[in-house]
């Protein structure tokens, strides 16, 4: 009997699964499958495969938080925070600096009522709640929610919910209890959670709900984002750290393979620009550099976004009134002198400052050095709009959003705009589900290897 005839009944079983849009036998005996779009969709509700991806991360973090191996104190549980090159815990003082910078960014927006989606062990909740009128945190890990609820922090409430569930009745009841009946947050915070998101579509769903939830004016802060434009830099550093004597001929191949299998999401600000363009209220975006002192992956390859909903009275009413200055016009004078000269007339954006953590260009400056030089001034350290290897400064800080649009005619300096891990998860998980399905529906049957078709193979498959 031919291989094709042998696998036909199994192909039919596989094709009948609701998570499959098509299946066929391949010449080598495999069964190629095409996932059903509804199984990977984020809207109107997460599809089955996307939901499984979210559940995977929920299980991982619940296990990490239960173990509490990085718990230094009630307000400093760093469980799960490890360097990706060594696997060792990140330095505690560096994490305190990371926390302080995040708290500074949040408080600079002058929030009174915060809804944090993905609050984790409460690193930010412990530091923010006393400076607010109310704080509500959500997380997918029962261990974290239970521990924070038992802590009894005044003016807080904690709910087990995923990021896309901010509009559920449980979250609304928590906000009613803390903020007041039907009172909305003026800040929605997602810090160091987007790396666990499966796709841009899911990110868009979460952001649209968050933007709809805040008051006008209000802010949505997305912090500690992995920049897709720095993904090659990041994985090149990782591979060189792990194998400094590796063969140059295979090095690029290994870097590309590592990126392809990366299970965490990264994206550039442009991805979010497209998402908020369709929102009903005006939304402006500022893109902030991480300015910790220590040179680690958290400082080099990550950034923060602040989405400003509506227009605050004190904000600059548009980019036309902002003076544009390039770093090359002032370099060579020393950092403090150059900054004073460049920002002498405000509002101003000083751009194209080489980041010394990512560049060996002359006059390169670290984000920390910029922050220290600007101490006491109303200014913000940003990522340059044209190149994530560069920095910028906005003075006053309220004109930071004017630096967001890339310069007209300047090509985008990164590719891709996002790295989405969902399909890598689907390629691993869907065959497992389908093998179990075949054995359940046809006991004793040993299915051939099942693989998710790549783009070329999908093109050959009938709808």
From TrEMBL:
Gene Ontology BP terms: methylation
CDD domains reported in the protein's UniProt record: AdoMet_MTases
Source organism, top-level taxon: Bacteria
Gene Ontology molecular-function annotations: methyltransferase activity
Pfam families noted in UniProt: Methyltransf_23 (PF13489)
Keyword Methyltransferase assigned: yes
Keyword tags: Methyltransferase, Transferase
Name by which UniProt lists this protein: Methyltransferase type 12
């Amino acid at each position: 009997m031919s291989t094709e005839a042998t696998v036909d009944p199994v192909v039919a079983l596989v094709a009948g699964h609701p998570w499959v849009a098509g299946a066929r036998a391949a010449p080598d005996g495999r069964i190629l499958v095409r996932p059903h779009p509804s199984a990977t969709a984020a809207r109107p509700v997460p599809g089955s495969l996307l939901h499984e991806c979210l559940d995977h991360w929920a299980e991982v973090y619940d296990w990490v938080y239960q173990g509490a191996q990085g718990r230094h104190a009630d307000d400093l549980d760093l469980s799960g925070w490890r360097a990706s090159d060594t696997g060792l815990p990140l330095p505690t003082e560096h994490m305190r600096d990371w926390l302080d910078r995040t708290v500074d960014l949040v408080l600079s927006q002058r929030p009174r009522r915060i809804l944090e989606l993905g609050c984790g062990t409460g690193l930010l909740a412990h530091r923010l709640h006393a400076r607010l009128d109310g704080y509500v945190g959500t997380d997918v890990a029962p261990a974290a929610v239970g521990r924070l609820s038992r802590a009894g922090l005044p003016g807080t409430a904690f709910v087990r919910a995923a990021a896309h569930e901010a509009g559920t009745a449980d979250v609304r009841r928590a906000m009613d209890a803390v903020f007041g009946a039907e009172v909305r947050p003026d800040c929605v915070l997602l810090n160091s959670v987007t790396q666990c998101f499966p796709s841009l579509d899911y990110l868009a769903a979460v952001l649209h709900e968050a933007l709809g939830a805040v008051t006008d004016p209000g802010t949505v802060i997305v912090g500690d984002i992995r920049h897709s434009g720095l993904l090659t830099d990041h994985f090149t550093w990782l591979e060189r750290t792990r194998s400094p004597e590796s063969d140059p001929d295979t090095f690029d191949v290994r870097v590309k393979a590592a990126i392809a299998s990366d299970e965490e999401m990264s994206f550039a600000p442009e991805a979010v620009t497209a998402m908020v363009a369709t929102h009903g209220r005006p939304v402006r975006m500022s893109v902030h550099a991480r300015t910790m002192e220590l040179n680690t992956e958290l400082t080099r390859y990550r950034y923060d976004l602040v989405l400003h909903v509506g227009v605050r009275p004190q904000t600059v009413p548009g980019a036309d009134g902002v003076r544009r200055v390039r770093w090359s016009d002032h370099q060579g004078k020393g950092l403090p002198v150059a900054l004073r000269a460049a920002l002498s007339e405000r509002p101003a954006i000083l751009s194209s400052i080489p980041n010394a953590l990512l560049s060996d260009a002359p006059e390169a400056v670290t984000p920390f050095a910029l922050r220290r030089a600007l101490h006491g001034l109303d200014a913000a350290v940003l990522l340059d709009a044209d190149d994530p290897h560069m920095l910028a400064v906005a003075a006053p800080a309220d004109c930071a959003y004017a630096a967001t649009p890339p310069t007209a005619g300047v090509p985008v300096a990164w590719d891709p705009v996002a790295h989405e891990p969902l399909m890598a998860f689907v390629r691993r998980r869907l065959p497992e589900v389908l093998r179990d399905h075949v054995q359940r529906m046809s006991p004793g049957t040993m299915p051939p290897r099942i693989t998710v078709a790549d783009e070329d193979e999908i093109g050959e498959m009938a709808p």
